[in-house]
Write a structure and sequence with these properties.
Strand content: under 5%
Shape: globular
Number of domains: 3
Number of helices: 12
Distance between the termini: 67 Å
Radius of gyration: 24 Å
Number of strands: 0
Largest sheet: none
Structural class: mainly alpha
Length: 309
């Protein structure tokens, strides 16, 4: 196919997609637009059947984990047990999730989908707090609320404004998208918690000097606050910088392996990268600004003896 033919096909596809959206056909025709390949551009390899994986294939894949276990024992890292337990847990958890998702997809009820999202949110909040040295009770509620706002807003915007899921509770889209969102927000919240506490301890003299000069707690802790936010956002920023160059992200890779056109897969991956930036930023800001208050007394005195209370 010549470059002229490729350009003509591309223009025709864009024109058709634009006309479809302009006419407001968001059900059958819009779904067809998303699923059909760009005629003439997809290589024949995408038409080949998807390679299946048996449980025996997974047993063979476990050899890679055994390699990591062997290296851990060789270097006496003390991670042998953790690697084995983690591998077993990943198999069991993913297998259970697969069957649960089949059940949820079959029932297709909004309350069941929201229940699954609530469980994911609760587990993510607990895991983010468990990584901290000090875990006061109110930290759980604060982290849960931060993840709820950051992840909930992002999912709402993506599902209703960008992807425009129909029906709004479609589990095929809502659950995977929320899983990616809340997972990254959880990591950002954990990093923000940890870095803020470390920064306040390492810069205690600076913070107390500001307080002695009459500065507010917010002004005195501005430096540690910014450092904590940078630490939480740097992984996401790095991902935005190198996506597609250093590695192909998971969602894009999965769609391509499933036979979806790379041109459609990259659109979804772009949406994923943008939604992760949103969820991580909102969650990290809420966590840091709220958690910062726990390190100061009502009289704006720094308290670091046993961490936030």
């Amino acid at each position: 196919m010549s470059w002229h033919s490729v350009a003509e096909v591309t223009r025709a596809h864009v024109a058709e997609a634009t006309l479809t959206r302009a006419n407001g056909m968001f059900s059958g025709s819009r779904l067809q637009e998303r699923l059909e390949p760009v005629t003439g551009l997809e290589p024949e390899i995408l038409q080949s059947p998807i390679l299946g994986l048996s449980w025996l294939d997974l047993v063979a894949a476990s050899g890679l984990v055994l390699l990591a276990v062997g290296l851990s024992r060789w270097q006496r890292l003390g991670l042998t047990g953790s690697l084995i337990v983690g591998a077993i847990r990943s198999v069991v958890q993913l297998a259970l999730v697969g069957y649960v998702l089949i059940y949820i997809f079959a029932i297709d009820q909004w309350w069941l989908v929201l229940g699954a999202l609530a469980v994911m949110l609760a587990v993510a909040s607990r895991e983010a707090v468990r990584r901290q040295d000090e875990r006061p009770l109110r930290l759980y509620g604060m982290t849960w609320l931060a993840l709820l706002v950051g992840s909930g807003f992002t999912l709402f915007y993506v599902s209703l404004v960008v992807v425009r899921i129909e029906p709004w509770y479609n589990p095929r889209y809502l659950i995977p998208l929320f899983g990616m969102i809340v997972g990254n927000a959880m990591n950002a919240a954990a990093l923000a918690h940890e870095r803020l506490a470390a920064e306040l301890r390492s810069r205690r003299g600076e913070v107390e000097a500001y307080l002695a000069l009459g500065a507010t707690a917010a002004r005195a802790s501005r430096g540690p606050t910014r450092s904590a936010l940078r630490a939480a956002l740097i992984p996401t920023v790095n991902s935005l910088m190198v996506v597609g160059l250093v590695a192909l992200p998971g969602m894009m890779t999965g769609q391509i392996l499933a036979g979806v056109s790379p041109l459609l897969a990259i659109r979804y991956q772009i949406v994923v990268m943008f939604m992760l930036a949103s969820a991580v930023s909102v969650s990290a800001v809420i966590v840091v600004l709220w958690n910062r208050r726990l390190f100061f007394t009502p009289d704006e005195q720094l308290r670091l003896g046993s961490g936030p209370v």
